[in-house]
Amino acid sequence: MRAPLLAALALVAGCAVPQAAPRTAALPPVEAPWVAAVLETRVADNPKVDADDPVLWRHPEDPSRALFIGTDKSIGLYVHGMDGAVRQFLADGPMNNVDLRPIMLDGRPMVLVAATERAKFGIMTWLLDPETLKVERWGHLPTPRQFGEPYGFCMGQVDGETLVIPNNKKGAVLAFAIAPGADGKPAMQLRHSWKLRSQTEGCVVNDETGDLYVGEEDRGIWQMSLRRPAEAPRSIAGVDGRIMVADVEGLTLMRDAGRTFLIASSQGDSAFAVWDIAGGAHDFIGRFRVGGGGIDPVTQTDGLSAWSGPIGTYPEGAIAVHDHCDGDGHEDPSDAVCDSDAKQQNYKLVDWRDVKKALGIR
């Protein structure tokens, strides 16, 4: 597979660069009402969790059987219950972004969990058993050497294929089809590639439409097509200091009553922007922040993940978000702590109903 990968990477290097993302006049950021977190993750035996990106999952037949999975950029992957407590830890190296999709393996329904691994440069995979809720290592898949460090990551299922999609700090985006190989271990083949101008990270796939959304941290959000990969990336939202304040970080989708919402982390002002993308439109709905109540506010947010529909005790869905600096109670530690390596990072959970109420979504 080495020769095709080298050819594809050469193609990426020579791709036409998309037009500049639109920027608007310098105006103050759009108001963002506060939404209180309903729970947060806890790691009792590690005071320096280097959290980055979460993903939510629930059993297809029982919303109470749900998990809250999150990466540690330094040491591995945490599996939390919906009470925030650690159920399992997998010390498989520095993991950046994580995603998952259901698959069939040897006739059994399983869940493929995968993340970008930053030491050996590749994609680490695990299998989640939906009956036992246990996560086990499946295998490591190296990304092409010329690709360098894989950074952002997402997954999709389009036209019968499960796709793993890493990107890097130079704006390269690769989409691989993944499936069990002859030895039962994971194997992947390159399907598509794109090139943006600068560092990328957050991404999400709309499995229904085949659309891939990628965040270019300093410039904005781009839409590509997994069904029409030759089409140039299309700008959806620019970093304008109003709706999006650099860096653009996590991206996720929430489906509700026939509508699909794109949600993005605006790290520069610790907010989240929401668009209604149903029917191919990208109508800006509003922004919100996470804070208030008995849990400390979310700051310098990175990854996020939405679950559409019932999960745990949340009947309409929930959103998991990264928090750069966790505090005891309702306040963050001092700036000196939050700016140091001594801080504790974690993930917060928000009830989708509370976001809808704050933004007037009906």
Detail the topology: elements first, then pairings.
Blueprint: H1 2-13, E1 34-35, E2 39-40, E3 51-59, E4 62-72, E5 76-81, E6 86-90, E7 95-105, E8 108-117, E9 122-128, E10 135-142, E11 153-158, E12 161-166, E13 172-180, E14 186-195, E15 200-206, E16 211-216, E17 220-225, E18 234-238, E19 248-256, E20 259-266, E21 271-276, E22 283-290, E23 304-308, E24 317-323, H2 335-338, E25 346-351, H3 352-359
Parallel strand pairs: 1-22
Antiparallel strand pairs: 2-25, 3-4, 4-5, 5-6, 7-8, 8-9, 9-10, 11-12, 12-13, 13-14, 15-16, 16-17, 17-18, 19-20, 20-21, 21-22, 23-24, 24-25
Describe this structure in words.
The structure is a single chain. With 362 residues, the protein is mainly beta. It has one domain: TolB, C-terminal domain (Neuraminidase, 6 Propeller), CATH 2.120.10.30. It has helices at residues 2-13, 335-338, 352-359, and strands at 34-35, 39-40, 51-59, 62-72, 76-81, 86-90, 95-105, 108-117, 122-128, 135-142, 153-158, 161-166, 172-180, 186-195, 200-206, 211-216, 220-225, 234-238, 248-256, 259-266, 271-276, 283-290, 304-308, 317-323, 346-351. Strand 17 (220-225) and strand 18 form a beta hairpin.
Question: What is the chain-wise order of helices and strands?
Answer: HEEEEEEEEEEEEEEEEEEEEEEEEHEH
Oligomeric assembly: single chain
Low-confidence stretches: 1-8, 20-25
Distance between the termini: 50 Å
Treating each run of at least 4 consecutive H or I residues as one helix, how many helices? 3
Number of domains: 1
Q: How much of the residues is beta strand, in percent?
A: over 45%
Which structural class do you get from the secondary structure elements?
A: mainly beta
CATH superfamily: TolB, C-terminal domain
- Report the sheet with the most strands, covering strand number, pairing sense and barrel closure: 5 strands, mixed
